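For the sake of clarity, the format in which proteins appear in this thesis is described at this point. The record quoted next illustrates the convention:

___
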Amino acid sequence: MPEEIETAVDRVGSVSAHRYAEIVAELRELVKTASSILFTVGDYALEIEPMREHGGASADGPFTVKGSLFRLSEDIGMSYYTVKQARQTASKWPKDRRVAEVSFAVHNILASIADEEERFAAILTPPPGKARWTPDEANRRTGRQVANPVTPQEKISAIHTLAKDEEVAATVTGDLLRRPAVVAQVKPEEKVRVVAELSREDDVAVAIAPDILRRPAVVAKVRPADKVKVVEELTRDESVATEVTTGLLRRPDVAFKAMGDDTARHQVNRAQVERGQQAREDFERNSPAAPAVRAIDRSMEFLDLVAACHAFVAASGRIVPGLRDRQLGDDERVILHENVARVRATLDWIETAVDTGKVDVDGELARLLQGE
């Protein structure tokens, strides 16, 4: 057909389909020649340095295997790598097993098939649907990366290869994570790994954590033990702990369960006493009415103490006669003796306070009063 009416389909690059076919035919003959040349180089290299077992020594002489091949490459004007590869490929393909229509590059790739019979059969059998072997098809046959990836797995392998550089990998990962459709297909466990890795830096973790903790559906799935750990970490700051604890104790169910813990209840009671003491001390320091109140307090304390002694004596006078003719058990006697000791120590304490004005409690008395 005239060149002026050829369509784009009838052209390859800048040439017509007919001219392209001519070029391919001519180049195939040149490739055969090039392959023959490379095999010849390989055969001569094998003659100079035959293949040996791994670690085997070179023949006696001033050169190692590498030295001999390097000298050969220098003398013929080829690279050392080309000569080395030609020798290796020639050793895998005896002359009667080489296929003229198949390029040296394909012979070189298929040389990695370890089993000889499998290797020799493979080169005679192009892939299904293909008229001839190509380097990419040979790479697929041997499990290597192809130059023009087609399948998803081949594309994934190509991306992994290109992303070996950490800067490239970081850029690619960032771009991919901005695509919702891509992120949606990532497995949950992989997403967890990504988040874990990305939040290793404290600044990133701090930025992410509040957003996550504001999502009730996410928090609901966290294990109770992990929730406790999170709360403990977040309430290390006293101001935060105070605000959180105050809010929690306003919830009746929470307060009820918390007071079931002896230590918690003791700490709350202790805090109430200390708060009352602090308020009293502040009043006595700053209030002009403090002297009058102190006088009243002293009178009230005197009356309270007399009333306490009277109540104790009255209660004892009512209860003790009831023990007549009653045999108490050993455990009962032990308990009563312990309490009598506490009462006796308390009476001694009262006498000391009345006579000296000192109300300090020593360690032993404190333990008795606490029932230890």
User: Anything to note?
Assistant: The radius of gyration is 48 Å. DSSP finds 19 helices and two strands in the chain. Residues 17-48 form the longest helix (32 residues).
